[in-house]
Structures are given as C-alpha cells and as structure tokens.
Design a protein that fits this description.
The complex is a heterodimer. Chain A starts with 12 loop residues before the first helix and ends with a helix. Chain A is 61% helix and 0% strand. Chain A is mostly helical. By secondary structure, chain B is an all-alpha fold. In chain B, 76% of the residues lie in helices and 0% in strands. Chain B is built from four helices and no strands. Chain B has helices at residues 2-5, 11-23, 25-43, 51-68. The longest helix of chain B is centred in the middle third of the chain and has 19 residues, at 25-43. The N and C termini of chain B lie far apart (52 Å). Classes of the chains: A mainly alpha, B mainly alpha. Chains A and B meet through helix 2, helix 3, helix 5, helix 6 and helix 7 of A and helix 1, helix 3 and helix 4 of B.
Chain lengths: 210, 71
C-alpha cells in the first residue's frame, strides 16, 4: 500500500513505553486506561469522522463503533503502528464503510507542489512581493476571531485537504501517521497540506490587512 | 517550502534554501506567514470533551466488558 512510501513513525522511547503500558492495562480490563484514551483521542476522532460523513450524529456513531472496534481488537493489536494510528485508521475505515461519502485520493504531480497564485514569474522571482504581516499576527494566533475564521476556512476546504490539515496542524499527527491513517503517499500528503496551509495563510492575510 | 516545513528536504537543498532565506526578505516573510498559519490552525483545537459523550462511552465500555468479557 502507499503507506510504504512514508518514513517509519518515529516516537520517543518514553512514549512507546507508556503506550505499551496503556495497552497492557486495556488488555487487563482496566477501565481507567480506556477513559484515558477517550480523553486523549475522542474529539480528534469525531473531527476525523466528520470529514467523511455528513452529520455529527453519524460521526459520533462511527466513533463509538470505532471504540468498540478497539476493545474487540486490542488483543490482536501487534504494535506495528502507534495505537493512535491504528485507532484513527479504524475510524476512517468505518466512516468510509458507512458509505455516506466516497474517499477521494487525487493523484497529484510533484511539480504542483508550489501553488501557482501568480505571484511568481516563470523564472521564479516574486512578481508581487508579499506584504509583511507575520510578525504582528504571531502574538495573537489564539485570538478567538482568528481561530473562528480559520475553523471556517478549514471546513470549506476540499475534503482531502481538510482531513490532512486537520490531522497535521489541528491534531498534531506526524506526516507518517497521516499517510497511514488516510492511506495516501507522502508526496500527496505534503501537496494537500501545503494547499490547505496556503489557503489559511491567504485568509489570515485578508483578515489582517482588511 | 512544503518539503522544508515537513523536514523532508535533502540536506543540501535545505542548506541552499536556508541560504536563500537569509538573503531574501520576501521568501523569509512567506515562510513566516505559513508558520503563522500552522500556529493558528493549532489554536483551533480548543474544544473539551463533552461530559455526556464521556459518560456514554464509559457506559459502552462497561456493557462491552460485561457481555464480551475481558478478564
């Protein structure tokens, strides 16, 4: 599968050890281990499911069903990916098989990586140099007005861009994890992510300069 | 720049890009704006788990344990 094109997931040793411990407790039927996992991952899983199905109610059903999938499958989990990757992969599979929306994997050529927004000339020089605003915004990245606007922008992105940027920049997964969860190549992951970030960047610019 | 932000650029290309960024304020600003976009997206994740959702899931857990019996 395309995930093989991704670098292996790298995690600090301490994280791997605590994950082993958590898996052990889950297998032993320790309720608090399950509660911990729910606390850490449930919201991100609902966000992920929502990007494949139409309504929040269906997304929550899919996620609840995925939690049962985890409980039923934990004895067979071999640890070839992180627990989170495996869990998120269950969500994607169930959301897709819920069959509301097809999962689209658009092949993209590497040369499309940089968006052609007319600001570069053929030989790669700036035609319209950027207005400088990054320094003024960096202090208010968590301002409610900005985050609300960015939440809207993400919701309006094409589905795959939306999934990739949510997993990477909102939920903080690594590139390798995103490739594994969405079953896309590393290049496609990067292209989708970059387009989404460019879109967010340009909306922030409008917000700042207006 | 996409590969650079993903730490996926081969080291020689990375050095060349860094050298360019040191000299080109426009590209440096563009990169900074992308980094701000990433930071703002990170701040979107502010919602806490709804206590009812948590309670529901623990209920699901207990039902599963009682029926399909972990130890």
């Amino acid at each position: 599968v395309s995930a093989s094109a991704c670098p292996p997931e790298a995690g600090p040793r301490a994280t791997q050890r605590s994950e082993q411990e958590l898996i052990g407790r889950l297998r032993a039927g320790d309720e608090s281990a399950f509660a911990e996992l729910v606390e850490t991952h449930h919201q991100a899983m609902v966000r992920l499911a929502l990007m494949h199905v139409r309504s929040r109610a269906v997304a929550e059903e899919v996620v609840q069903d995925s939690w049962l999938g985890l409980l039923r499958g934990i004895d067979r989990f071999e640890g070839r990916s992180s627990l989170r990757t495996w869990l998120f992969r269950i969500v994607v599979n169930r959301a897709i098989s819920t069959g509301i929306r097809e999962n689209e994997h658009l092949p993209v050529a590497g040369h499309e990586l940089e968006s052609k927004d007319g600001r570069f000339s053929q030989d790669g020089w700036w035609v319209t140099p950027p207005t400088h605003w990054a320094d003024e915004v960096v202090d208010r990245v968590a301002a409610p007005a900005l985050t609300a606007r960015v939440r809207e922008v993400i919701a309006e992105l094409p589905p795959l861009q939306q999934r990739v940027v949510t997993l990477r920049d909102v939920d903080g997964l690594s590139p390798a994890e995103v490739c594994a969860v969405l079953d896309i190549t590393e290049v496609n992951q990067r292209v989708q992510l970059h387009r989404a970030r460019q879109r967010i960047r340009s909306v922030l610019e409008q917000e700042v300069l207006s | 720049m996409a590969a650079y932000l993903d730490h996926a650029l081969p080291s020689l290309d990375r050095q060349r890009l860094q050298a360019h960024l040191d000299q080109c304020p426009h590209c440096a600003e563009h990169l900074k704006q992308l980094e701000v976009a990433i930071l703002v997206a990170g701040a979107v994740r502010a919602d806490d788990l709804d206590p009812r959702a948590r309670a529901d899931l623990m209920e699901v857990y207990r039902r599963w344990r009682d029926e399909e019996g972990a130890p």
